[in-house]
Design brief:
The chain has about 270 residues and is an alpha/beta fold. The protein contains eleven helices and eight strands. Helix 1 packs across helix 6 and helix 7 packs across helix 10. The radius of gyration is 17 Å and the shape is globular. It starts with a helix and ends with a strand.
Length: about 270
């Protein structure tokens, strides 16, 4: 994929999520769709009612993801956590509860409107002294080398047209021994070429999805160790809310798609 195509994809994704931020919507779905209510989706993809009830209402119902990356990750007091594609801040807020007053949580998003929205929510929630939202791209993170204990992301890496660079950057910012937990969409086989060029499907978490083994190999190539799929759910029919993600309602997919949770570690030096 050349630089021009990558730029087109990123702009399509940026416009899509900027519109969601401006309208206050928490769903990828259109107004006439039959999507599952977002708080129900959040529970279906792994967020507990206890977690959701601890958050402001406008972030508790804002899951646009495919799984809870915090569900399988240990987060310790005082740690620094980085959330890639933080959106309205659901995972950032939950991580803030676990790192406590001595910790730090950074939300990274490439959409100015989403940064403004999540920053306002954090201020109202009284956690703005723990969390910080930074405008930037996953392929070029505004984060120092070896400064983060844990990287998480919820169904966002698939939106990038340069996933190798994303995982190289994640590796760079992690401290030696740091961990990464990612929820994302993968496929059972390579996507048809026409779907690869569908910009609306890129924004909807489908066209950027890689075949599972290729996805895991890119993580290993970036330098990560102990790369493992910790959970895997067939999301082809999108009952977990990934129909919301791809904007296609219950339209059949041309191949199987899966929601996976992947864990990995940066080696200690």
């Amino acid at each position: 994929m050349d630089k021009s195509q990558q730029k087109q994809i990123k702009e399509a994704v940026r416009r899509h999520y900027a519109e969601l931020a401006r309208t206050g919507s928490s769903s990828c779905c259109g107004p006439d769709s039959n999507c599952v209510p977002t708080q129900s989706v959040a529970q279906m993809i792994g967020y507990s009612q206890q977690e959701l009830s601890s958050l402001p209402e406008d972030v508790a119902g804002s899951s646009l993801g495919c799984g809870n990356p915090l569900a399988l990750s240990e987060i310790h007091r005082g740690e620094v956590v980085l959330d890639l594609g933080s959106g309205a801040g659901l995972d950032v807020m939950l991580a803030a509860q676990r790192v406590g007053e001595t910790g730090r949580v950074i939300g990274l998003d490439m959409t100015p409107d989403m940064i403004e929205r999540s920053t306002r929510i954090a201020e109202r929630a009284g956690v703005d002294h723990i969390v910080e939202f930074r405008l930037g791209e996953m392929e070029d993170m505004p984060v120092d080398n070896d400064s983060v204990d844990l990287v998480v992301s919820n169904c966002v890496v698939n939106l990038s047209p340069d996933k190798e660079k994303v995982f190289q950057e994640a590796y760079r910012v992690l401290k030696p021994g740091g961990r990464m937990f990612i929820s994302d969409i993968v496929t059972s086989q390579p996507l048809p070429e026409d779907m690869r060029h569908d910009l609306s499907s890129w924004a909807g978490c489908v066209s950027g999805a890689l075949e599972e083994s290729e996805y895991l190999n890119i993580i290993r190539k970036a330098g990560f160790e102990d790369v493992a799929v910790m959970d895997k759910v067939d999301a082809t029919r999108a009952e977990l809310g990934t129909a919301c993600c791809d904007g296609s309602g219950d339209a059949p997919m041309p191949l199987n798609i899966y929601s996976i949770k992947v864990g990995a570690r940066k080696g200690a030096r």
